[in-house]
Design brief:
Number of strands: 11
Order of helices and strands: EEEEEEEEEEE
Radius of gyration: 13 Å
Distance between the termini: 40 Å
Shape: globular
Structural class: mainly beta
Helix content: under 10%
Largest sheet: 7 strands, mixed
Strand content: over 45%
């Protein structure tokens, strides 16, 4: 079992920045690839980024490429999402997720992840 807890969500003005954190407890952190998703009201859950167990590989959704950066600190069992140039359309609940590093299924499919945090709210005002 892995428990995930996100933090860092806030109300921010358009053009601003936030850094989200997700702390993992339970099983060995490096056994898992970690991903970030978001879900806005009345919208489907959206993949944002996945980072490999070592942090050596990161893949982003086109919608956030160049603005968001995912990273991880395995010594702290933490994954981060640095969000810059925020837009009102970035308003959503942001969640981190984990799946075994050997999983080769589509990484942008939320159904392939075994563990989820409770989410943290990000609101971007215009």
């Amino acid at each position: 079992q892995v428990q995930l807890v996100e933090s860092g969500g806030a109300l921010v003005q358009a053009g601003g920045s936030l850094r989200l954190s997700c702390v993992a407890t339970g099983r060995t952190f490096t056994l898992y690839s970690m991903a970030w998703f978001r879900q806005a009201p009345r919208k489907e859950r959206e993949f944002l980024a996945i980072i490999s167990w070592s942090g050596g590989y990161v893949y982003y959704a086109d919608s956030v490429k160049g603005r968001f950066t995912a990273s991880r600190d395995n010594a702290r069992n933490t994954v981060y999402l640095q969000m810059n140039s925020l837009k009102p359309e970035d308003t959503a609940v942001y969640s981190c997720a984990a799946r075994p590093k050997s999983d080769s299924r589509a990484y942008d499919n939320h159904l392939t992840y075994d563990y989820w945090g409770q989410g943290t709210q990000v609101t971007v005002s215009s």
